[in-house]
């Protein structure tokens, strides 16, 4: 039986426009003119006999019928892309774009990334950095590494708060846990001399992270120290900045242990004896739901999972 379907180009133009709510953005994504997108959408509306968008001077919105069609078309295109990926050998290689947290990328991922390139020479990694919530519907990113929670309520007792949002949307993506987010206080041997307990930390200058303002209070609170006394001291916008300040001897920082493993191993920074304080979150590898099983995605997911396990077993 002959299928009664609109053209694939019209459906792609509609899906991109509905997802971005912008004919201009859809045109840029599909590498065509805005006029071409508008013509495809109008042709689709004429063919099925309903308006799909409410058009105003500066924006577009989906009609009820547009919402219904968008859900179906997006699902169909996702399945089509996944099916093609499963049989197209070329998807085992190509460019893989990864967005990672800046200090995690610098201190943990980059020192290991050459190993992935050596074992997967057909895959070219493009590594970007970002701290904001990833939006897979708008960003040209295949994978993201973020720290946060999945909202399942499975946080350790006395864990440090983590108020970071990993994704902009609640659906359409999957997460794979890489490692725990555990906080340790670090400073140079000179600064840490005489610091033998969490209470002794309060005799030193404390360095803070702007995006995790509760870190010191929660760390000290988990060790039984009143947290109200932990709010003073300079603040920094990135972990690589607060870690560098600690390296320079400017004070003591409380940071995720995964970010300072090399510093601790080399003695450039030292920490207190005892267990780190876990946060309520963890580091996750994030991906679009429909691309989870693509060969290039699966190759990186398998590799980084192995690296995370090696890291966990090698820790003291």
Automatic annotation (TrEMBL):
Domain of life the protein comes from: Bacteria
Keyword annotations of the record: DNA-binding, Transcription, Transcription regulation
One Pfam short name: LysR_substrate
GO annotation terms (biological process): DNA-templated transcription
Domain HTH lysR-type: 6-63
CDD domains cross-referenced by the UniProt entry: PBP2_GcdR_TrpI_HvrB_AmpR_like (cd08432)
Presence of the UniProt keyword DNA-binding in the record: yes
PROSITE patterns cross-referenced by the UniProt entry: HTH_LYSR (PS50931)
GO molecular-function term, one example from the UniProt record: sequence-specific DNA binding
Family indicated by similarity: Belongs to the LysR transcriptional regulatory family.
PANTHER family: HTH-TYPE TRANSCRIPTIONAL REGULATOR, HTH-TYPE TRANSCRIPTIONAL REGULATOR TRPI
Protein name: LysR family transcriptional regulator, glycine cleavage system transcriptional activator
Source organism (scientific name): Salipiger thiooxidans
